């Protein structure tokens, strides 16, 4: 059982809700994934368009909602977004993300630490999206973040785990749960992250953009479960070539 | 009276509170949050907050995202 900030999660797969072709596809995928938590974003109401309430179908799934600060380019914008999210969704849980450059969408580490400090002081349960930097993750844990969310690779890239060594350092040294976020492109990427000892993964694009999102959500769920079990059972050690069958002199090579 | 609402100028009768502004804008969803001049106004206070000329009102909603 995964626990973050005294909240228990039976599933170690978290989902984003963006990029789905339809709301029903999103709902079906969330159900198929058996996730306990999904992310949401904020936006200004567009008066020119018919308003749709995305909350009702999500609340019907009885999962925890994790608002993010996507769109924030500075620490102060992220703090403002967090306060709005708390008012809007009545939750103090927050996925803190600050990416000032729309080209690569990489998180700003300095602004993230600064905002995290403020938000923790305001009583938020902060889960920061961050670079796969062990020292940064340590700092974020030290300022009171409930978990860290290092990226596997850039958001939406589906490139998988680009820096496995850095991720391994984070996992082995983190004092808070590690949720691998962003860039996991296929179930085997998620399985690998879990085999390495990640506490959970967050997936959006790889499921939402798949030809069959519901089926892909099931595949990710199975991969995460298998990866976690593999981690718990423990992998056999690496080494030089060793026969796995007895080397008898059956052929009598003389 | 004129206020800036989500970046656009809007004419409202004076006096006008936030609840009345939402009615004017035909915003019916309950799932919104409002800031006036960058200060978030709790839902319970919407009717008590009177708008002033040139106030900047931002109305937010949740949307799908990763």
Describe the structure.
The complex is a heterodimer of chains A (254) and B (66). Chain A is an alpha/beta fold and 254 residues long. Chain A has helices at 23-33, 55-60, 75-89, 109-121, 134-142, 164-173, 187-195, 205-208, 213-233; strands at residues 2-4, 7-9, 13-15, 37-44, 64-67, 93-96, 125-130, 149-150, 179-181, 200-203. In chain A, the strands form four sheets. Chain A has a three-stranded parallel β-sheet with strand order 3-10-9. A three-stranded parallel β-sheet of chain A has the order 6-7-8. In chain A, helix 3 packs across helix 4 (109-121) and helix 5 runs parallel beside helix 6. With 66 residues, chain B is mainly β. Chain B has a five-stranded mixed β-sheet, with no helix packed on it. In chain B, a hairpin with a 2-residue loop joins strand 3 (32-36) and strand 4 (39-41). The relative contact order of chain B is 0.31. The model of chain B has no long low-confidence stretch (mean pLDDT 90). Chains A and B meet through strand 4 and helix 3 of A and strand 3 and strand 5 of B. Strand 4 of chain A pairs antiparallel with strand 5 (56-64) of chain B.
Rg of chain A over CA atoms, rounded to whole Å, is: 20 Å
Q: Give the helix tally of chain A.
A: 9
Terminal Cα span of chain B: 39 Å
Shape of chain A: globular
What characteristics describe this protein?
heterodimer; A: 254 residues; alpha/beta; 3-stranded parallel β-sheet; 9 helices; B: 66 residues; mainly beta; globular
């Amino acid at each position: 059982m995964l626990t973050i900030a005294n909240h228990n999660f039976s599933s170690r797969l978290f989902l984003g809700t963006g990029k789905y072709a339809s709301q029903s596809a999103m709902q079906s995928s969330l159900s198929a994934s058996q996730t306990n938590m999904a992310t949401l974003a904020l936006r200004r109401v567009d008066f020119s368009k018919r308003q749709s309430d995305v909350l009702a179908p999500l609340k019907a799934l009885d999962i925890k909602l994790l608002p993010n600060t996507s769109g924030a380019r500075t620490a102060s914008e992220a703090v403002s977004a967090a306060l709005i999210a708390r008012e809007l969704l009545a939750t103090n849980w927050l996925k803190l993300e600050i990416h000032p450059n729309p080209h690569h969408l990489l998180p700003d580490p300095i602004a993230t630490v600064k905002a995290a400090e403020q938000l923790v002081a305001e009583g938020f349960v902060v889960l920061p999206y961050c670079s796969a930097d062990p020292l940064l993750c340590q700092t974020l844990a030290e300022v009171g973040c409930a978990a860290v969310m290092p990226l596997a690779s850039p958001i939406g890239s589906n490139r998988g785990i680009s820096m496995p060594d850095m991720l391994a350092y984070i996992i082995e040294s983190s004092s808070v749960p590690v949720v691998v976020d962003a860039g996991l492109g296929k179930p085997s990427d998620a399985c690998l992250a879990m085999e390495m000892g990640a506490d959970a993964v967050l997936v959006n694009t790889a499921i939402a953009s798949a030809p069959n999102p519901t089926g892909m959500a099931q595949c990710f769920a199975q991969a995460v479960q298998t990866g976690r079990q593999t981690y718990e059972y423990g992998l056999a050690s690496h080494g030089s070539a060793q026969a796995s069958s007895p080397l008898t002199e059956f052929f009598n090579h003389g | 009276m004129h206020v800036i609402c989500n970046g656009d100028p809007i004419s409202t009768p004076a006096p006008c509170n936030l609840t009345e502004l939402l009615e004017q804008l035909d915003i019916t969803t309950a799932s919104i949050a409002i800031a006036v001049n960058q200060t978030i106004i709790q839902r319970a206070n919407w009717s008590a907050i009177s708008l002033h000329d040139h106030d900047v009102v931002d109305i937010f909603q949740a949307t799908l995202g990763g």
